[in-house]
Amino acid sequence: MKTQILKKKIVKIFHKYGLSKNHSSISADALINAELVGAYGHGLSRLKMYCDRISKNVINSKAKIKIKKISQSITHVDGNNSIGFVAADTAIKIAINNAKKTGIGLVAVKNSGHYGLSGYYAEQAVKKKLMVMVFTNAPPAVAPHGALKSLFGTNPICFGTPTGSKIPFILDTSISMINRGKIRVAAREGGKIPEGVALDKFGKPTTDPKKALEGVQLPIAGFRGSGLAWMVDILSGVFTGGNHAGRVKDPFTDFSGPQNIGHLFFAMKPNLFVGNNFNKRIKDNIKKIKKLPKIKGVKEILYPGQNKFNRYKNNLKKEIKISKNILNDLNILLK
Question: Cβ neighbours of residue 96 under 8 Å, at least 6 residues apart?
Fold first, then answer.
């Protein structure tokens, strides 16, 4: 399906469920971006979930975002239980404006929901020639190191910086071996997940996505990954006023109330300490690493964001492929 046609359909669906045209457009853009960069677990596969949560009044379709200015650089945003895309879009724009004015923009968000890909917001800051860090927590999926029960989310860590070229450096990675969206897509489409990424509810390794969703996802690097997940839970939950310590509700299965997810956006001018030398220094950094001897089979050492940029560029020329299950969702939601 052509991107423009798909966006009109998604906007129409969100508007039908009570979002304003502006909020519908913001949400549609985020979902389509996920499809274009190949992050299908954060794209159209979640559309029905958002609509279900709106219809059950655990996402506030008429949310009025509250903005509290703490200083020229620091702002606190209350999402008013809005769809996460809208709260995050508001926050990253404020972070960018604050950073442009003072050199640093720190924005905390509470009372938000799932906002899609962290890298999507990081890219917005990098396009404005800023460095950025983005954090968000998520529903329980990963057990803290030494625990038998899931508590931390897949809590992504995201960092972006200008590179002096058209391709930005964007590191956007969950602290789990695989992001939960991919597991949900595999469960829905009848596929399998890789070995070594999840345990079933009995603590046994599994490649069955449905058993993985009932069990525990494994963190990257053992206790180190668990520690990073805890760090993100503190930064985006404890620090912002959002839910934390396993209290974020699963968006697909728990409709008992809003998620109250917390996000943290930290944008900064890259020339704060090295002045106009930053571009020269970042280019030197990347060039030095790319010139390293390569192992067999590797043609180029890629920095985070290069593959995603190329996928986006290539997919933009094509129609977006939609599975039968997703197409069925679209047709039902449009009725």
Answer: 105, 124, 125, 128, 130, 267
Q: How far apart are CA 327 and CA 188, in angstroms?
A: 13
* Distance of alpha carbon 63 from alpha carbon 58, whole angstroms: 11
Question: Where do runs of H (alpha helix) occur along the chain?
Answer: 3-16, 21-36, 47-55, 84-102, 118-127, 180-189, 209-214, 223-233, 278-290, 306-315, 324-334
Provide the 10 A C-beta neighbour count for residue 62. 10
All domains in the chain, ordered by first residue: 182-218 (3.30.60.50)
Instruction: Please indicate, yes or no, whether the overall pTM of this predicted structure exceeds 0.85.
Output: yes
Residue 45 DSSP one-character state: G
**204-230 pLDDT per residue, tens:** 999 999 999 999 999 999 899 999 999
Euclidean distance between CA atoms 105 and 237, whole angstroms: 19
| Cβ(132)–Cβ(108) below 8 Å | no
> Which tens digits make up the pLDDT trace of 105-126?
999 999 999 999 999 999 999 9
**Structure confidence at residue 179 as a pLDDT band (50, 70, 90):** confident
